[in-house]
Amino acid sequence: MEPITAWLREKNPGLDGPIRGDEDLIEARLIDSMDFLEFIDLLEGLSGAEIDLQEVTIDDFRTLDRVQEKFLSA
Question: Is the pTM of this model over 0.70?
Answer without folding.
Answer: yes
